[in-house]
Write a structure and sequence with these properties.
Blueprint (H helix, E strand, L loop, with lengths): L2 E2 L8 H14 L8 H12 L20 E6 L35 E5 L2 H8 L4 E10 L5 E3 L9 H17 L5 H17 L7 H12 L1 E3 L2 E2 L2 E5 L8 E6 H7 E15 L2 E14 L2 E5 L3 H12 L2
Parallel strand pairs: 1-6, 5-8
Antiparallel strand pairs: 2-4, 3-9, 4-10, 6-7, 8-9, 10-11, 11-12
Helix pairs in contact: 1-2, 1-5
């Protein structure tokens, strides 16, 4: 069911209802339920209230920096083609488990704007893996889950205060208490993406944002949420499959021997191969000094 986000001008009962419902959901354990059962519980709690809150001046985002994905070198060469970009992009829906930002059987394009975060989020054994570098072709509609002033990163704190100010401006006809309930509702939702053992709430919420809500005449293309693996010092992105397939462009792939991560610092030891992306294909070659320098430059902009 598709819903368009509306900026409600009259009455504020929906704010209390939303605030109460989100906190009730927050206390529930839905891990062992099916996607359909989770959907029914959300609908019974939220009802006709908007599940997410968007400021009235929401605009598409320009993004000119690279994004990064990591894959362990566990390629099944009988069924996968190491010379195809698809092998390093979205997996088939048929093999997708429930994840932090995707429901069972529906993949999203996970990425980070930080190499260390991409590695930390994906790998426990940080040896023998692929780091792919991606660019966006077009601006995109982004929903940001950064609304917590407890974030470690000054950048995320700044984003939080900007979003809080924008929301308060959009809902300035409401009382201070009502505005704070809206902000706290988003903070609780953000906390769902910081759970390592239970993806039931975050995956359902992310799926609805990406597939069921309209901003004007467009769906959201991606969500952004804090990285629990870096103690909220950086962020992750989850792009809708249809958007990623049309707008994500792979530039190159680094086959890396090992990465060592300590806090905000990380070190990469050894390059095995470099994949140069051209259309849907990858040409592999031995690394040279120029390739090392290109990786150093990518690390330096993080």
């Amino acid at each position: 069911m598709q819903k368009e986000i509306q900026y409600i001008k009259k009455g504020s009962d929906w704010i209390t209802h939303l605030y109460t419902s989100i906190n009730e959901l927050d206390s529930m354990d839905l891990r062992n339920l099916s996607e359909n059962d989770i959907e029914q519980i959300f609908k019974s709690k939220i009802g006709n209230s908007p599940m997410i809150i968007v400021s009235s001046n929401h605009k598409k985002r320009e993004w000119n920096r690279p994004l990064f994905r990591v894959r362990k070198n566990n390629i099944n060469y009988k069924n996968e083609n190491a010379n195809s970009i698809k092998t390093f992009s979205l997996p088939p829906d048929s093999v997708v488990d429930r994840g932090r930002a995707n429901i069972l059987g529906k993949s999203v394009f996970y990425a980070s704007n930080n190499i260390g975060t991409a590695i930390a989020e994906t790998l426990n054994d940080r040896s023998n893996f692929f780091l792919s570098v991606w660019r966006l072709n077009d601006p995109f509609n982004l929903y940001e889950f950064v609304s917590t002033d407890r974030a470690s990163s000054e950048v995320l704190k700044s984003r939080y205060y900007r979003k809080k100010a924008a929301l308060k401006n959009s809902f300035r006809e409401y009382s201070e208490d009502e505005s704070e309930k809206l902000i706290e509702s988003i903070a609780v939702q953000t906390s769902w993406f910081l759970r390592d053992s239970d993806y039931s709430l975050s995956s359902y919420l992310a799926n609805n944002i990406l597939h069921n809500f309209l901003v004007g005449s467009r769906f959201f293309d991606a969500i952004m949420y804090p990285s629990i693996k870096t103690d909220k010092r950086s962020v992750n992105f989850a792009f809708k499959r249809s958007f990623a397939e049309q707008n994500m462009r792979c530039e190159r792939i680094f086959h890396i021997n090992e990465a060592i991560i300590s806090g905000d610092n990380y070190r990469i030891n050894g390059l095995n191969r470099i994949g140069i992306c051209n259309g849907d294909s990858i040409s592999w070659k031995e690394p040279n000094d120029e390739d090392w320098n290109s990786l150093v430059q990518l690390v330096s902009v993080n």
